[in-house]
């Protein structure tokens, strides 16, 4: 299996509820290794740039307002098939549709405030990791 990297955000709702550690535990239990991590409070410009692909969608303004409403935790995860493995433990975008035991089922309240983000492809992951981390900030595991 391929070792991949993916990008994760613990969103403002989950940070506010002190669920960072509980969500990190989900990553580690799934075999995903944290190779870079920091807490940041996005500016409007940073949030708009990160979600540029959604700029024409009706929910864009609400999404940017939410993502700038408080600190977020951003991390790069590494592991076997990391992009898909991470999306699987995240669950569906709408927590009402998320499978039991997934992060969004257990920590999210609504589609607008859905606890966490995960890259949707290897290409997205490369762009998103680089949006937040320099090469020097990534610490690949040797064991
Ligand atoms: P994410 O990017 O946050 O991991 O979520 P996703 O791939 O599952 O969903 P995506 O289509 O990329 O949408 C990004 C975020 O926008 C909000 N959203 N709201 N009201 C709506 O219909 C709607 N659709 C999407 C969600 O917060 C979603 O996570
Ligand atoms: Mg997405």
- Oligomer state equals single chain
Strand content: 15-25%
Bound molecules: ribavirin triphosphate, magnesium ion
- What is the CA-CA span between the terminal residues? 17 Å
**Overall geometric form:** globular
From the alpha carbons, calculate the radius of gyration and give it in angstroms.
14 Å
The CATH homology group name: Nucleoside diphosphate kinase-like domain
Total E-strand runs: 4
What's the CATH architecture?
2-Layer Sandwich
Structural class computed from helices and strand pairing: alpha+beta
Mean pLDDT: 97
The ordered H/E elements are EHHEHHEHHEH
- The number of domains: 1
In the CATH hierarchy, what is the class? Alpha Beta
Which key features would you list for this structure?
143 residues; alpha+beta; Alpha-Beta Plaits; four-stranded antiparallel sheet; 7 helices; 38% helix; binds ribavirin triphosphate; binds magnesium ion
Structure notes:
The model has no long low-confidence stretch (mean pLDDT 97). This protein has a single domain (3-137), classed as 2-Layer Sandwich (Alpha-Beta Plaits). It has seven helices and four strands; from the N terminus they run E-H-H-E-H-H-E-H-H-E-H. The longest helix is centred in the last third of the chain and has 11 residues, at 122-132. Helices cover 38% and strands 20% of the residues. With 143 residues, it is an alpha+beta fold. The chain has helices spanning 12-16, 20-29, 44-50, 60-67, 82-90, 103-107, 122-132; strands at residues 3-10, 33-40, 72-80, 116-118. It has a four-stranded antiparallel β-sheet with strand order 2-3-1-4, sandwiched between helices. Bound molecules: ribavirin triphosphate (RTP) and magnesium ion. Ribavirin triphosphate (RTP) binds at residues 54, 59, 63, 93, 111-112, 114, 117-118, 120. It is found in: Cytoplasm. Its main location: cytoplasm. It catalyses: a ribonucleoside 5'-diphosphate + ATP = a ribonucleoside 5'-triphosphate + ADP; a 2'-deoxyribonucleoside 5'-diphosphate + ATP = a 2'-deoxyribonucleoside 5'-triphosphate + ADP. Residues 3-140 form the Nucleoside diphosphate kinase-like domain. Keywords: ATP-binding, Cytoplasm, Kinase, Magnesium, Metal-binding, Nucleotide metabolism, Nucleotide-binding, Phosphoprotein, Transferase.
């Amino acid at each position: 299996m391929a070792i991949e990297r993916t990008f994760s955000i613990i969103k403002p709702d989950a940070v506010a509820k002190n669920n960072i550690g509980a969500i990190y535990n989900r990553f580690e239990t799934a075999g995903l290794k944290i190779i870079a991590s920091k807490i940041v409070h996005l500016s409007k410009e940073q949030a708009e740039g990160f979600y540029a692909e959604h700029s024409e969608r009706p929910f864009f303004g609400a999404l940017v307002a939410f993502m700038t409403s408080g600190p977020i935790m951003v991390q790069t995860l590494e592991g076997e098939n990391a992009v898909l493995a991470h999306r699987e433990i995240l669950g569906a975008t709408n927590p009402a549709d998320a499978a039991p035991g997934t992060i969004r089922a257990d920590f999210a309240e609504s589609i607008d405030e859905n606890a966490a983000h995960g890259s949707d492809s290897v290409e997205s992951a490369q762009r998103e990791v680089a949006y937040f981390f320099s090469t020097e900030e990534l610490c690949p595991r040797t064991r």
